[in-house]
Amino acid sequence: MIISARGLRKEFTVSRKVGRFRRERHVVSAVDGVDLTVERGELLGYIGPNGAGKSTTLKMLTGVLTPSAGEVSVCGLEPVAKRTTLARRIGVVFGQRSQLWWDLPLEESFSLLRHIYRVPEGDHAARLKQCTDLLGLDEFQRTPVRQLSLGQRMRGELTAALLHGPEVLFLDEPTIGLDVLSKQAVRTFLADVDKRGDNTVVLTTHDLADIEKLCRRLVVIDHGRVVHDGTLDELHARYRSRRTIVADLDNPWPEGLTLPGAVVTAVEADARRVTLTLDGMAAGEVVAALAQAVSLRDLSVQEPDIEDVVARLYRDES
Amino acid sequence: MADIRDTARVYGRVLRAQVRSQWQYRTSMVLEILGSMVVNGLDIATVFVLFSVTGALGGFTGTEVLLMAALSAASFTVADLVAGSADKLREYVRSGLFDSLLLRPLSALLQLAVITFALRRIGRAVQGVVLYIVALCVADIPWTVERALFAAIVPISGAVFFASLFIGGATVAFWWVESGEVANAFTYGGRDFTSYPSTMYGGWFRDLFTLGIGFGFVAYFPSLVLLGKPDPLGLPTAVAWGSPLVAVVAACVATAFWRFGVRHYRSTGS
């Protein structure tokens, strides 16, 4: 296995003002005993609500933060002790922390990184060409990074993280804030990276589409603990997450109306919008029954929200 | 050895990229360089005016005091050029940008020095060194080979000493982001202290700063060695010759403290 963590824990001391001068200090566990193993070539989705400890875990795996307790090994190295050796073997994209030189053209960042990571010229050119083709970097390689759009910059960051041929790629919310097209470009690119199988990828995200398209395996964490480790289907099955139908109606929803196989969970907008949660029946049958009962103006079927699943997960735990 | 040269070349490239970045705003940079040279020039003029009035200070003649002031200035301005932006660490810690330094296969400390390198400080460093050379020429120095070597080494060791202070002061930010100007009391305060003969100060204050913190080994003791004078305060001349070693000790302490600090880096959310 290429990543292993056992009983990984990170505590922060937080001090809070009490009265005018006194401060109360207490210890908060951002990561509270995480066990995790990742095999070479896997693409792992590491998900959880804000503040769950995702980024903190990633920072301990990459040698940025020193764990408070537990054992961790990445590429057979202890991240903090062997930080610079490990840095050559991993690639990292932290959405908010650019690896690029703000005032210089994108291509100069790439050439600087080649020297920093001491990549042979041939390897560098080959990898850069691959990324350029897949991510369409040609149009903006000569533009200073500060003038790039967020989507363009993220494509630059991904390239920067891959140029030294890392064994493991850590991506912290690589699609956050991107427009639909850029999101798709990033996803397609990552799917391609995954297909080639040269890199192990650990990805944190809030985007359900990222997870569905990319992650065969999901590790869900909340309050610093792993609450699920398995596939997305297993997650939905385990927590009975259900799809919902949102229907806009021509006339107000008749009070007290019920449909077999679905539960009315909300009636809004002067009773002209109704939300039904599927309960054991296929969406088609419920929609057919709905169309018979009321006059439909518009209708959408929504996939279960991963955040809801996670929220439910945590309620079950406690 | 070849490896060290390669590594140095990598930092050189990153440094040049940094300068190129700053050069994007060249008008502002040129004005800043000129501005700081004018300010520093006035500082130097103050020293001359002071000597022309008093003639002697703390038992030393004008040119002797000038040597001390110039050695202090050269040491400080060179350290300021190399490590003076270390206090920017505060911003990197506060914003979490320090993460990206730790993700590269390079020393975080040297990266910090390189990426916060401020070209505008180069004017002052040149002035400081020139002033030192002038002071060496006008002072009454009984030149020997040893003294010539010593004269070449001490501004460097003095710069190392000040750089250690800059780094040590900046490292506090790992625990105390709002450390503000506390560190400056030692760096800028140290520059002012070392500009004058230690004999000028009195009592425990003098002993603490001259020997305790080691400011005496930046300019005062080395100048006595160059001038071939015994220390009126009684430090043996052989110890004064060892002034550069104090800088080595300071550098070791500062880097150990820095390493300790990096392990306490907390980063920020997300």
TrEMBL record, chain A:
It comes from the Bacteria. This is ABC-2 type transport system ATP-binding protein. InterPro entries: AAA+_ATPase, ABC_transporter-like_ATP-bd, ABC_transporter_ATP-binding, P-loop_NTPase. GO terms for cellular component: plasma membrane. Its main location: membrane. The keyword Amino-acid biosynthesis does not apply. It is a peripheral membrane protein. GO terms for molecular function: ATP binding; ATP hydrolysis activity. Keywords: Antibiotic resistance, ATP-binding, Nucleotide-binding, Transport. Residues 15-248 form the ABC transporter domain. SMART domains: AAA. It is found in: Cell membrane. GO terms for biological process: response to antibiotic.
From TrEMBL, chain B:
It comes from the Bacteria. InterPro entries: ABC-2_transporter-like. This is ABC-2 type transport system permease protein. It comes from Actinokineospora terrae. The lineage of its organism: Bacteria, Bacillati, Actinomycetota, Actinomycetes, Pseudonocardiales.
